[in-house]
């Protein structure tokens, strides 16, 4: 895969963030696109995703946040037959990646650490000319680890009024590039092929 679309789905009144990452030959990534949508009906978000993926030179993968409202919206994306391979990812506060049928349950710390490593090793480039680049950079600066009284770590914005939707959209796409190749992508492709075969038979 050369392109991954990252989608962090928000409640209707919250932001939904969309990003497109492109892999370079060096194993580094360029953030090619950033967008935030607010007060936007989910069918309109699906149409927006369809428009974006059809503009790419090849079929992309799509890492979609399946946490909260994500599951029914993912069903809408699949029903729309977008020209993209859709990979649902549920963010958790756990310690390990867990396969849950066609989905992966991924600790939020894994997504956050993936971004941190890419930035520290200068393998993630964010074009300043992108409409939301300053917002993403501000979110990255405000993103922090919070240790709860029970000893669990959570990743959230430094201040309550700050958002982390773009960080998570980029993080989901980066995680799929970096960690999704451990068998998740292959497993999903095999499962989808099996389901199509059963449906045809």
The number of domains is 1
The percent of residues in helical segments reads: 25-40%
Second CATH tier, the architecture: 2-Layer Sandwich
Succession of helices and strands: EEEHEHEEEHEHEEHH
User: Averaging pLDDT over every residue, what do you get?
Assistant: 82
CATH class, named Alpha Beta
CATH fold label: Nucleotidyltransferase, domain 5
Q: How many strand elements?
A: 10
The value of Rg in angstroms is 16 Å
Features:
Nucleotidyltransferase, domain 5, single chain, 38% helix, eight-stranded mixed β-sheet, alpha/beta, globular
Question: Could you explain how this protein is built, in words?
Answer:
With about 200 residues, the protein is α/β, with parallel strands linked by helices. The chain contains six helices and ten strands. Strand 1 and strand 2 form a beta hairpin. About 5% of the residues have low confidence.
């Amino acid at each position: 895969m050369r392109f991954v679309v990252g989608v962090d789905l928000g409640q209707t009144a919250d932001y939904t963030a969309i990003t497109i990452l492109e892999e370079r030959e060096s194993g580094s990534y360029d953030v090619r696109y950033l967008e935030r949508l607010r007060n936007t009906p989910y069918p309109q978000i699906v149409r927006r995703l369809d428009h974006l993926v059809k503009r790419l030179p090849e079929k992309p993968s799509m890492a979609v946040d399946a946490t909260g409202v994500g599951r029914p919206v993912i069903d809408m994306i699949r029903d729309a037959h977008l020209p993209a391979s859709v990979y649902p990812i549920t963010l958790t506060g756990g310690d390990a990646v867990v396969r849950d049928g066609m989905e992966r349950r991924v600790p939020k710390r894994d997504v956050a650490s993936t971004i941190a490593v890419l930035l520290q090793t200068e393998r993630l480039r964010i074009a300043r000319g992108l409409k939301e680049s300053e917002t993403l950079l501000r979110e990255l600066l405000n993103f922090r680890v919070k240790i709860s009284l029970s000893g669990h770590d959570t990743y959230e914005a430094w201040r309550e009024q700050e958002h982390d939707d773009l960080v998570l959209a980029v993080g989901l796409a980066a995680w799929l590039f970096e960690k999704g190749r451990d068998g998740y992508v292959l497993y999903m492709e095999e499962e989808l092929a099996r389901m199509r075969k059963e449906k045809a038979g």
